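Example 3.2
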Amino acid sequence: MATATATMRAAAAGVLLLALAGVALAEDPYLFFEWKVTYGTKSLMGVPQKVILINGEFPGPRINCTSNNNIVVNVFNQLDQPLLFHWHGMQQRKDSWMDGLIGTQCPIMPGTNFTYQWQAKDQIGSFFYFPSIGMQRAAGGYGPITIMSRNLIPVPFDPPADDHVVLIGDWYTKDHAVMAKLLDSGRSIGRPAGVIINGKGGKEAADPPMFTVEAGKTYRFRVCNAGIKASLNFRVQGHDMKVVEMDGSHTVQDMYDSVDVHVGHCVSVLLDADQKPGDYFMVASTRFVHDEKSVSAVVRYAGSNTPPAPNVPSPPAGWAWSINQWRSFRWNLTASAARPNPQGSYHYGQINITRTIKLSVSRGHIDGKLRYGFNGVSHVDADTPFKLAEYFNVTDGVFKYNQMTDEPPSVNGPLQVVPNIITAEYRAFIEIVFENPEKSLDSFHLNGYAFFAVGMGPGKWSPELRKTYNLLDAVSRHAIQVYPRSWTAIMLTFDNAGMWNLRSNIWERHYLGEQLYISVTSPERSARDEYNMPEKSLRCGKVVGLPLPPPYNPAR
């Protein structure tokens, strides 16, 4: 990776903050954070290991904001490797410059800092951030993002007594650099050593109690699977939960005794403290594997000295239960989200599809080493981020557009290992169908957008299956699972100009090429549709020293 050079030094950063503070009264509010990212030693599975910390903490600080707030995060990289942070689920409207992936941004080199500035534009809900380079995500460094509705926007449930974050995920005891070397050598990272909850595992997770509730009150728990491989089932002993929000959308409020949360997904539940006062286990356990791993935290009723009952609730069994639960999730059509108008005022089922992209997961070996991809193309990054190469018009030698077709190849051949960048027409309404021929579940995420997951089923997809789609109240979200040897279909309007990553949330597969970038450009080349590259942006690769291109036309 070419050395990145910052266009903003510490003094300039201070000027920026003062300037932003001066205009805050005229704009949406600004929230400022300063993060020092270091390594530390923790024993989450009883084995000391190197963990990525933010200001000495894991999980990292909570970014708690309101719709349309401007977020400014000054990141000091005190690791021994390049670093980027991705804001998982943040749509970064008109601003893929701040998306924090190696395809859109030069890395923050060791011993340097960079200031992210992005807006939680027209979003509410539960999300998280994580370090996105290599396998760093497996070493921690992640934390929650929670976005509240503005005061004048009604929320479809009464304010809870408290609002808690629950970050669950599988955990490996291997160092993240060792995991990357294993994958580079053609070997697997294997299965996780266990499961953690809010950065704690084993006995540490249950003692002392993680949450305290008062009898008769209702609490919100924002549950995100920030792991790298395993789907998890979440439940609270003796309590049912009401699902109210999922990946930034209000849902129809149904009751569940447990909820499957797949990698990269977030779900909010309301829990009524309506049981006999005592201690109760909060459990997250792996799904769809033979050697089940789990973690138990404790929810304590205030004043309780009664330990939890030993019968920890078991997770449901099999795939059918999980599929049926997904089918029960529905978009709350009458609730407002970030804007006053009801969510259901957007009638996605009445829009004509202009293009169908069918993505079949590909797996193969190159020089004896395992690779993944889509439609026969396994993605590889370049020394110059694709967004910068496109902006400066120096794509030659960096990537070629549309080397992958919209249909899987009819005959499986050897994988092509190249940067996988496709184009999408600005404001086109496109259907994307994922096919997963593997024996294990996959989970996908699209940066820059929310989409409607309208259908899923076994086997391969065909156009006739559109008659099974939910064209009324599918949940608008940014991540979706695809079950083994099954398909899932999503629909969305590509109305956010930029360079956006579509990827597997299963980080081993992502690392090995199961991802691509979608370039969405406005034909008007207008600042109304996309921001110019910020002057403070880091430079690397072929764009070092180049003059800035002419700016986009002024917004009108």
